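Researcher: Let's try something more involved. This one mixes different molecule types, so please make sure each is placed in the same coordinate frame as the others.
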Amino acid sequence: EVQLVESGGGLVKPGGSLRLSCAASGFIFSTYSMNWVRQAPGKGLEWVSYISSSSSFIYYADSLKGRFTISRDNAKNSLYLQMDSLRADDTAVYYCARDRVPVAANDALDIWGQGTMVTVSS
Amino acid sequence: EIVMTQSPATLSVSPGERATLSCRASQSVSSDLAWYQQKPGQAPRLLIYAASTRATAIPARFSGSGSGTEFTLTISSLQSEDFAVYYCQQYNNWPPLTFGGGTKVEIK
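Model: All components are placed in one shared frame. Result:
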């Protein structure tokens, strides 16, 4: 079964850090580009970051202003999001999501994890 | 950044009726447009990609159309499990990938 499972969310104080993980299974992880998408409580979907299959291309939403770092370990079938200098408006469910087509530069997101909740509060 | 605008924000439909959801892009995205369904407490699910192609295992009652800046998602006969929030997303001109604000389809 093709699956993505996020972990690492939790409660963190403003200014703190958190590292999210996304474990992939059921497909050849190393051939797919991956994304992080977040959803604040009661709000819509917001794209956060993208990483190509070999980590050659990495992009972020401008709103993050260098606070987040995406990475992946293809040997471990895992995707990561390091989040630093967290703010209250980073509070959201964070989803990892797979590009539909392997190796493609851009496509729809066909597989999503169940999400992990990040709460930034003092 | 391409802005995606969905309308209406809420659509009240009776089971068995047809639902038509709209999505407009601030500039042309060709056919690089996807639709997602999200139910409460669940992750989004891909319904349509390339504006009109149904994703794997998506029922035929879901159809997508349009190109350029105007897109439509049609649910031909609403079933109880179709009441949800629907999002459009463009992947033509990025980063960033951008989503519409969503349309909530509720029971009339």
